[in-house]
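Practice problem 4.
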């Protein structure tokens, strides 16, 4: 009788031990996951903290290499110098212009293109989708793109548009990945909702703006975030296509950095702050709008990527 009770209790003991092992492994996984997430977060945060520290540190501390994390000999003269720099704020307004109108333009173009490509009744739909994806596989190259932009600039001038900021907005207002992301999001909209709207007399434009756009706002916000950041940080083509008065912020910062490197500093020499601190101060001003806007769009980000990236 005693042997029978002992035998019956053995499976229970093994089951409890298995449960303990499972909980321990899960705990180890969570510890490692949180550890690497914290390390990654600190790696992302460090450049931002260093930029602020370098911008507000004194000249002697910066030049001697004492700035590693926290500032030393704190001063705000570099920020004051930038605040009264008219060229910096002109480039800032150019960047706001290109980012705002560029984001609106690409959203309009991408929404219309994605909506059309999401419809199976579209003629030559497979071929158009193939050519769209083909541009992601094989780029035309730097020289053909440059020639295309210069020809587009000639067309703009022929119709009286001499402000080349519009060239950056319109000529660069297409991205195949964004169209594919929105197309997949539109394809995930339930067909029953579309059929109900058609029965109620909705036109194609009504379907797009009253059904598809509201139900895909997460994907649309994600595309807007992608391209808005791209335009805000845009450098190379904006530098090639625009004049000095039309330069965006990133080109202006690069030009000032080149002047400082070549000992052609346009600012008066100061004993309080290093010339490089001016560049860091510009960078701090440049990232403020992204820091302000990103938290409001972040709630749509993961949902938008999943919605547009997974096709049912």
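Answer key:
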């Amino acid at each position: 009788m005693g042997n029978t009770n002992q035998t019956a209790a053995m499976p229970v003991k093994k089951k409890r031990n298995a449960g303990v092992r499972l909980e321990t492994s899960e705990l180890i996984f969570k510890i490692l996951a949180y550890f690497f997430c914290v390390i990654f977060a600190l790696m992302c945060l460090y450049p931002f903290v260093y930029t602020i520290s370098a911008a507000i540190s004194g000249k002697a501390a910066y030049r001697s290499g004492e700035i590693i994390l926290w500032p030393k000999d704190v001063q705000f003269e570099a920020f004051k110098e930038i605040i009264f720099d008219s060229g910096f704020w002109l480039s800032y307004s150019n960047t706001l212009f290109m980012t705002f109108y560029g984001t609106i333009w690409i959203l309009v173009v991408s929404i219309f293109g994605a909506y059309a490509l999401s419809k199976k009744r579209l003629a030559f739909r497979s071929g158009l989708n193939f050519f769209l994806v083909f541009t992601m596989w094989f780029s035309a190259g730097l020289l053909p793109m440059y020639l295309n932009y210069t020809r587009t600039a000639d067309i703009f001038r022929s119709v009286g548009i001499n402000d080349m900021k519009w060239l950056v907005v319109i000529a660069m207002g297409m991205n195949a990945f964004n169209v594919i992301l929105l197309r997949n999001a539109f394809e995930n909209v339930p067909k029953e909702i579309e059929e109900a709207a058609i029965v109620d007399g909705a036109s194609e434009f009504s379907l797009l703006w009253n059904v598809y756009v509201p139900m895909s706002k997460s994907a649309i916000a994600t595309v807007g975030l992608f391209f808005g950041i791209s335009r805000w940080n845009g450098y190379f083509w904006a530098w090639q296509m625009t004049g000095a008065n039309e330069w965006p912020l990133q080109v202006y910062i690069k030009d000032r950095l080149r002047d400082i490197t070549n000992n052609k500093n346009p600012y008066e020499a100061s004993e309080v702050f290093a010339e490089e601190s001016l560049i860091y101060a510009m960078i701090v001003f440049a990232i403020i709008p992204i820091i302000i806007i990103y938290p409001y769009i972040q709630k749509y980000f993961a949902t938008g990527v999943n919605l547009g990236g997974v096709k049912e």
